[in-house]
Amino acid sequence: MNATGKPELISFDLCPFVQRSVITLLEKNVEFDLTYIDLANKPDWFLEISPLGKVPVLREKGEVLFESAVINEYLDETNPPSLHPVDPLEKAKNRAWIEVGGNQLMNSFHMMMAETAQDYATHREALMAGFKPVEGQIEGTFFNGDSFCLIDAAWAPVFTRLLIVEQALGEDYLSGYPKIRAWAEALVARDSVIHSVIDGFRDKFLTYLQKKTYNGDTPAYLAGRLAEQA
Ligand SMILES: N[C@@H](CCC(=O)N[C@@H](CS)C(=O)NCC(=O)O)C(=O)O
């Protein structure tokens, strides 16, 4: 909580982990403040409060919370009704698949940041293999069926980015996974997901990928492909 009495989420404008918490706050109609920092130039006040120097950080009641999945659990408990399934076993299973969603966020990030075509192919394969166990878990429009749950908030940022890159490059990262494809499309069309990113997110995200270089000024693999499309 800050001077306004609202919870404050410390953010970087392209961060998928922050997006998870923004979606949760929007779904729960909680008023909050969003403070953006530059991760390339972290302010001292942020380094003082953030144990790992990472966003998101939630400032609430003079305390600091970190780790997006934990922040979301806290927001869920303190702003009922819960977005988790009621049954403890189902809830525990959802938490396990939320963890898988975090791994897939990292797999997609590594693929998008790959320096060479070979790195890209390796990470692309890991990402697509990572979807395999998920396909059979999806119960309906959303992960658990008709209701949007915390697990949907956790996974939506994966698809926000993946669908942008697919569309820009004509790729298909969900080939063979029709349930995940339908889930992804339902998530990116959801109001809370649409409003969880900055205006102009698509262009800013693609520009960020286009600027990725290595060994001085060699464009990274996707940067090169995006430049070809331009
Ligand atoms: N497991 C963390 C991951 C957070 C994370 O990696 N955030 C990135 C931005 S998307 C960050 O702050 N990176 C800054 C750094 O590593 O220096 C979570 O779920 O909150």
UniProtKB/TrEMBL annotation:
<protein>
    <recommendedName>
        <fullName>glutathione transferase</fullName>
        <ecNumber>2.5.1.18</ecNumber>
    </recommendedName>
</protein>
<dbReference type="GO" id="GO:0004364">
    <property type="term" value="F:glutathione transferase activity"/>
</dbReference>
<dbReference type="GO" id="GO:0005737">
    <property type="term" value="C:cytoplasm"/>
</dbReference>
<dbReference type="Pfam" id="PF13409">
    <property type="entry name" value="GST_N_2"/>
</dbReference>
<dbReference type="InterPro" id="IPR010987">
    <property type="entry name" value="Glutathione-S-Trfase_C-like"/>
</dbReference>
<dbReference type="Pfam" id="PF13410">
    <property type="entry name" value="GST_C_2"/>
</dbReference>
<feature type="domain" description="GST N-terminal">
    <location>
        <begin position="5"/>
        <end position="83"/>
    </location>
</feature>
<dbReference type="InterPro" id="IPR050983">
    <property type="entry name" value="GST_Omega/HSP26"/>
</dbReference>
<dbReference type="InterPro" id="IPR045073">
    <property type="entry name" value="Omega/Tau-like"/>
</dbReference>
<dbReference type="InterPro" id="IPR040079">
    <property type="entry name" value="Glutathione_S-Trfase"/>
</dbReference>
<keyword id="KW-0808">Transferase</keyword>
<dbReference type="InterPro" id="IPR036249">
    <property type="entry name" value="Thioredoxin-like_sf"/>
</dbReference>
<dbReference type="InterPro" id="IPR036282">
    <property type="entry name" value="Glutathione-S-Trfase_C_sf"/>
</dbReference>
<dbReference type="InterPro" id="IPR004045">
    <property type="entry name" value="Glutathione_S-Trfase_N"/>
</dbReference>
<feature type="domain" description="GST C-terminal">
    <location>
        <begin position="87"/>
        <end position="215"/>
    </location>
</feature>
